[in-house]
Every structure is written in structure tokens, then in C-alpha cells.
Amino acid sequence: MYDAIVVGVGSMGSSACYHLARRGARVLGLEQFDIPHALGSATGYSRMIRMAYYEHPDYVPLLRRAYELWRELERESGQSLLFETGGIYMGPPDGHVVRGAIAAAEHHGLAHEVLSHAGLADRFPQFRLPGHFAGVWEPRAGFLLPEKVIAAQAELALRAGAELHGREPVLDWDAGDAGAVVRTATGEYRAGRLLFCGGPWTGKIVRDLGVDLVVTRQVLGWVWPRVPARFALGTFPVWGIEAADGSLSYGFPMLADNPGLKVARHGRGTAADPDQVSRQSTPADEAEARDILARHLPDGDGPVLSLRVCMYTNSPDGQFIIDRHPAEPRVTVACGFSGHGFKFASVVGEVLADLVLSGKTAHPVDFLGLGRFR
Ligand SMILES: Cc1cc2nc3c(=O)[nH]c(=O)nc-3n(C[C@H](O)[C@H](O)[C@H](O)COP(=O)(O)OP(=O)(O)OC[C@H]3O[C@@H](n4cnc5c(N)ncnc54)[C@H](O)[C@@H]3O)c2cc1C
């Protein structure tokens, strides 16, 4: 009998296992693949973190705590996991990226600087931008190393007493007054509480959530730039550019462990079944990466080194879902991270441990509840 069973030991599940175990809870984490693995939402060596959150200013208090917890995870694991390179967000001055980033920064008193087109050209000559574009510079933005984060969270969870099983898919579950039970091919496990952190597979395992989660295929690309020195870590920041269709082209400085300059588009990819998604790249995938480089980063526009497929789990409004299951009081669900959740994994683990152990949290997460869809 466990206090809690966590289904899915990926970005959020490994963090929840860590936070639950360090509070002394008896935790079992069940993961269908390896811990970590490259088949879910967290592959690709880097994930952006930023605070001037144009998506919704209510995320900012959570981000403040996320930064603290990332530094704590670094101390406890003895690894460097978060790199504050600074971040530059660019687009039309009245577009949702620039306007939203300024609104979030002003509302929460975050350090930032607004740059004109001339200011951008002066500070960041790597970019080619339309003449009417402006930018917002945020010194505390940067990136996390997702595979290392998940490994560190899992290892610290294990050291704190959690039991984690890789390669053991949860096939079925029940929850009632007497407790919860999950079934796998190997056995049946019982717990007081169940926590689902299944990422793209949530819709397959969590019934009666009452919300449509749309899984999409998303592609990341790496190229060898024409002028590598211009994109080196220490010289080049994380960045995002609002595209005409409202999507965001974005990228990272070059990393020592993984060759190439990474670029991608944050927009809705093709809908996919997570068990059937095509992991083969297509000419269209390469063309998308090429288009970002040709338009905005001419010195980066070199040969492709890698293209990788990853998945978003999109909620109906693009905001996360963190709540009790509407019909099962013993069950908590964290899903629908809609392509921007990784930076929050540290604080989401803390929130989930609160919800699982006491049914409430002091963190401001009401805006992420299921009630907003009713
Ligand atoms: C291309 C791409 C780029 C991104 N860029 C950023 C970024 O720059 N910044 C940012 O903050 N976020 C970014 N994100 C989003 C972020 O990575 C995700 O929001 C986050 O990883 C979601 O975490 P998760 O725990 O929900 O899913 P996952 O990390 O995929 O974990 C879910 C886990 O559950 C397991 N599982 C599912 N069902 C079962 C079952 N039945 N039994 C056992 N195990 C099960 C899965 O195998 C998986 O390990 C990006 C995502 C993608 C795809």
C-alpha cells in the first residue's frame, strides 16, 4: 500500500515523485518507457525558461518559485541544469508576444528592456527583422536541460525513498472509498491517492476528464551555422520571434554537448496519436526550419544536422490543467501543458505534492483548474 502512485515519470511525474518522497510519502512511480526517454514531450536537450510570460501574467508567481526550485535541484543533484543567458522576444509592437511580455514584466516588476528595431540591430546583429519590429530583452531568461532534469529528479526521488519502475505501462485503474488500484502487466498496486502525469497519453488512460486534449506532432531542428561563433553560448541568447500567423519561431544558443544551432516553431503541429506518431522527418519539416533561418538568421542558415519529433498535449485554451479529477476525489491530474510546461516542472511537482497529500496548495493555481471549462 503506497500513499501515492504517480502514473508517468516524465517531466512533471519525476518532479512530483521527488517532492512527494522528500516529504516522507511512500511513492510508487510507474513509467511505460525508460526513465528518462525520448518518446514523450521532453526530448531535445534544451527547454526555454522565461518570466515575462506573455501567455498569461498569472504564471509569473509560479515562475518565481520555479526558478528557486531549479536552483535547489542543482544544489541537491550537484549538476548545472539552468542557464540564464537572457532572452530576446521580437515581433510587431502591438503583437501578442511583445505587448504581452511588456505587460507581464510591468505588472510583476520584472527586469526588462524594450528595444526598437535599431536597438535590436545594434545589440543582436544575428537577426534579420522587418523594419516595424520591436523587442523585449529579459536578462533572467535562459534554458534548462530536460533529459538531465528528469534524470536528476528521478534519482533524488529514489534516494529519498521513492520506488520507480521503468518499462511498466499502467493499463487500467480504479479509485473508490477504500483507495485506488492500478494494474500493469506485472501486477496490481494499491495507494491512498493516484496522480496522473501521462503527458500525451493522458487522454488514453484518464477517463471522464471532460476535456479534449489534442496531441500534436512538433519538430525540432539543428543546423551547423555558416558563422558558428555568432551563436555560441555566452554570445547568443534564447530568442523568440512572432510570426505572421501568430506562431512563434524560437531557438537557443549552441550547446557543448549537442552539435548545432537549434530552431523550432511553437505553433500547433499536426494532430497525432501518441502511439502512432511518425518520428520520421519529412521534407516539409526541414523546409520549416530552413524558412526560419532564411528569414531571420542568415548566418545560421547552414546544413541540417538533426530533426527530432516531440509531442505537445494541447488543452482547449492552451493553459495547463492541474486539478482533482472531476469524478474521482482520490485522483489528481496534471496535463495539457500545451508546449510550454517544462520550465514549470519544478514548481508543478511541489504543487502536485501539496494537492496529493493535503488536497490544497498555497500556490496560485486556481486559474489552471478544470472548472474554467464548465
Ligand atoms: C518540441 C517541443 C518543444 C518544447 N519547448 C519548450 C520550451 O522551450 N519551454 C518549456 O517550458 N516547455 C517546452 N515544451 C513543453 C514541455 O516539454 C512539456 O510541456 C512537458 O515536457 C510536459 O511534461 P509531461 O510530464 O506532461 O509529459 P512527458 O514529459 O512526456 O511525461 C509523460 C510521461 O508519462 C508516461 N506515461 C504516459 N502514459 C503512461 C502509462 N499509461 N503508464 C506509464 N507511463 C505513462 C510517458 O511515457 C511519459 O514519460 C516543449 C515541448 C515540445 C514537444
Count of separate DSSP helical elements:
8
Q: Could you describe the largest sheet, including whether it forms a barrel?
A: 9 strands, mixed
Distance between the termini: 35 Å
Uncertain runs with pLDDT below 50, 5 residues or more? Answer: none
Bound compounds: flavin-adenine dinucleotide
User: What would you call the shape?
Assistant: globular
Tags for this model:
374 residues, 9-stranded mixed β-sheet, binds flavin-adenine dinucleotide, globular, 8 helices, alpha+beta
What does this structure look like?
This protein is α+β, with helices and mostly antiparallel strands and 374 residues long. It is 26% helix and 28% strand. Strands 5, 6, 7, 13, 14, 15, 16, 17 and 18 form a nine-stranded mixed β-sheet that branches. Strands 1, 2, 9, 10, 11, 12, 19 and 20 form an eight-stranded mixed β-sheet that branches. A three-stranded antiparallel β-sheet has the order 3-8-4. α1 runs parallel beside α5. It binds flavin-adenine dinucleotide. The site of flavin-adenine dinucleotide has 36 residues, from α1, β3, β13 and β18. Flavin-adenine dinucleotide (FAD) binds next to α1, β3, β13 and β18.
